[in-house]
Each structure stands twice: as structure tokens, then as C-alpha cells.
Specification:
Radius of gyration: 20 Å
Strand content: under 5%
CATH superfamily: MFS general substrate transporter like domains
Oligomer: single chain
Order of helices and strands: HHHHHHHHHHHHHHHH
Number of helices: 16
CATH architecture: Up-down Bundle
Number of strands: 0
Shape: globular
């Protein structure tokens, strides 16, 4: 995840300098999302066939390959090589995104919200460390101010691989439930709980990517803020994404998932309102903090709902389809973010997100009654 937060800060800045057109500056981050999306189903198959330990080590290998290729792209000033490197990072994160399901599988059902939140806490350190590497490695090479950052993050990838060597499979872990047969995929995704989980995750992640991807370009390249100030905004945003995980699981358990989802929508609305203010450091900072906080409420809620919407024998199919749809949506959000910010403005970007939030809010009101009538505890009887 440190590699992801590093990419969130500098990939669009490098793209702005190397791309044949500034409108393509977010293409490396888009390729990261595409790599994630296209590998969701293969990753599920790999984890099912090889187990979480060996499968996750393959993900670390992809991360190391990303670092080496990104350095080559910077040394040779080759935009397309740098872009392909981020495709490999996306492959790596496709494995990382499955960690939360491994955590959910290892605890009792009533502990799932806390387990998912706990796994996301690792990204708090990534939020601080990734952008910081961009500054620490700035003087490493005269060829590019970002080469040092990739050297440092590759050291972390090696360390992550060493940690995974300690992973012990869950005792008696199985991927099928002999008492209940798996339903067809269409029947799984037609369940109201699954639809609500998918829609919430898609909206929350797409809007977050849409705004976050454009922020370094708007701040550093267009508004003239320093890399240090831009780094602080991105760090604050990623902290806001994951720090609430300390209590989000508790809130879901105490207040209910629907209340937390509506709270996330409200916070997203505040993000849009701040984004419509005149461009300033404080407006960027507050807007991105609201963006991260809203994402956390919505995404943790969506993950909890997802784990309650399928039978054990269906988990890999249900999880794989969910993540494939979500990250496919992110690819479009990331790509069009760069295009809109280049040809229009930051305020138009926020207005677009405001329209999406409003539509989702109305759809959620209509859908929630159906969801409440279909008790998630009855999923094994469907």
C-alpha cells in the first residue's frame, strides 16, 4: 500500500512531464487501476489453487517488477514504460485487496467489521510513508527526482515478502461448503444485499479516485503549490481514508450499516461543497480529508455487506465479480479525471462528483426498503 500512496502523489506528476499530452498525465494511475481490475478474477483463482501465502508472494513479485520498470521509465524518459510499470503495481494490489477477505474468514461473524477495519489500519502507515519517500529519495539521482523513491519502496516490497513467509494458513481453512451448493452468479448478484454492497463500493471508490487523481496536478502543476504542500494534502487524505478504521467497525456494529452509509454520503457532500470554494491550500486539504473520511465509512460498510451476501461456497466468485466491477469503474474515473481537469477545471470536477452523490443518495433511499425486507441472515436459505 506504500507503493500505492507513492503512486497517488507522483504518478500523475511524472505523467504530466513525460506524456505526449497533459490530458494523458493520469494514464499511469489509470493503468494501475486497469491492472487491478483485470487481475481480480485470476487472483481469486490463484489464491484458491495455491493458497493465500504462495499467491500473495506472487503479488509481491509483481510489486518488485513494478519498481524496476518504473525506474527504467524515469531513466529513459519513457512514458509508456512508466505506464506499464503501474499496470504491474495494479496486479500486486489485486492480491493485497484480498487480505481483508482473509481477515474476515479468520474470525467469528460478529467480529468481521472489526477485522476488516483492522486490516485497513496498515494503510495509515502507508499514507505517511509513501509520499514521504518522494522527498527522501529526491536527491538520489540527477536523472530524475523520483528514482530514489522507487528504490526505497522496493526495499519495503522485499520486507513485505519476508513478512508473508511467516503467514500460517487458517486451521481447517476450506473454500467450499458441502452443506450448501453454490448458486449461479446471476442469482448471487441479484440479491439486494449484494447489489447494495456493490453500488456503495463502486460509487465511493470511483468518486475518491476521480478527485484524488487530479489533486496533485491541480495543486502542484496548475495552482503552483509546492510538492511539500501537495504531499501533505495527499498524506492527510490517505490518513483520513484509513485512520477512521479504528472505530468504523464499532460504529457499524452499534448503529447499523445503513446509518454509516448515509453518514458517508453526507461527508462526500461536504467534500463537494468545499471543492467549489476558490482554490487554496486549506480548501484542497479540507476537501481531501472529507473525501477520505467519506470513503472509509462507505467502503468498510460495503465490505461488511459483501461478506454477508454470499454462501461460503460462493465466496471467491462473489468477491471476484465485486472487485472486477468496482475497479473497472475506477479505471474510467481515473482516466476521465485527467481529461476533465486539463480541459475544464477543478470546480467542474467537483460538480460532476456532486451529481453522482445526489443520484446515489436517491437510489439508496429507494433501495434501502428492499434491503431491509431481505434479512441478510437468511442468505443461506435463498
Amino acid at each position: 500500500m506504500t507503493g500505492t500512496s507513492l503512486a497517488a502523489l507522483i504518478s500523475s506528476l511524472v505523467g504530466y512531464d513525460l506524456a505526449p499530452s497533459p490530458s494523458l498525465s493520469t494514464l499511469p494511475l489509470t493503468m494501475f487501476v486497469i491492472g487491478n481490475a483485470v487481475m481480480i478474477v485470476p487472483v481469486i483463482w490463484i489464491l484458491k489453487s495455491l493458497g493465500r501465502k504462495r499467491g500473495s508472494l506472487i503479488g509481491i513479485s509483481a510489486a518488485l517488477s513494478h519498481g524496476m520498470l518504473a525506474i527504467l521509465g524515469l531513466v529513459w524518459h519513457a512514458f509508456w514504460i512508466y505506464t506499464v510499470a503501474h499496470f504491474l503495481l495494479g496486479i500486486s494490489v489485486a492480491f493485497v485487496s484480498q487480505y481483508r477477505f482473509g481477515a474476515a474468514q479468520s474470525v467469528a461473524p460478529d467480529q468481521v467489521p472489526r477485522a476488516v477495519s483492522f486490516i485497513l489500519l496498515g494503510s495509515i502507515f502507508a499514507a505517511l510513508l509513501g509520499p514521504q519517500l518522494a522527498e527522501l529519495g529526491a536527491g538520489f539521482s540527477t536523472l530524475s527526482p523520483y528514482i530514489g523513491a522507487y528504490v526505497l519502496v522496493m526495499i519495503l516490497f522485499v520486507f513485505a515478502g519476508a513478512l508473508l513467509m511467516w503467514l500460517v494458513p487458517i486451521e481447517g481453512e476450506t473454500y467450499a461448503d458441502s452443506s450448501l451448493t453454490a448458486r449461479p452468479l446471476l442469482q448471487i448478484i441479484s440479491h439486494p444485499t449484494y447489489r447494495l454492497a456493490l453500488a456503495t463500493a463502486l460509487m465511493s471508490y470511483a468518486m475518491m479516485t476521480f478527485l484524488m487523481t487530479a489533486t496533485p496536478i491541480c495543486m502542484h502543476k496548475l495552482s503552483g503549490f509546492s510538492l511539500t504542500k501537495t504531499k501533505w494534502v495527499i498524506q492527510s487524505h490517505i490518513l483520513a481514508m484509513f485512520l477512521p478504521s479504528l472505530f468504523t467497525g464499532h460504529l457499524i456494529k452499534k448503529l447499523g450499516v445503513d446509518v454509516v452509509i448515509f453518514t458517508g454520503i453526507l461527508v462526500y457532500g461536504l467534500c463537494v461543497l468545499v471543492g467549489l470554494l476558490p482554490a487554496s491550500f486549506h480548501a484542497y486539504w479540507l476537501g481531501l480529508v472529507f473525501l477520505g473520511l467519506g470513503w472509509n465509512f462507505l467502503y468498510v460498510s460495503a465490505t461488511v455487506l459483501l461478506t454477508q451476501s454470499y454462501r461460503k461456497s460462493e465466496q471467491f466468485f462473489a468477491q471476484g465479480f465485486h472487485d472486477f466491477v468496482v475497479f473497472s469503474g475506477l479505471a474510467f474515473a481515473s482516466l476521465f479525471s485527467g481529461v476533465i481537469v486539463h480541459y475544464v477545471s477543478w470546480q467542474v470536477l467537483n460538480l460532476t462528483c456532486g451529481a453522482v452523490v445526489l443520484v446515489f443518495f436517491i437510489a439508496l433511499l429507494l433501495h434501502l426498503n428492499i434491503y431491509k425486507k431481505t434479512k441478510i441472515q437468511d442468505i443461506n436459505a435463498v
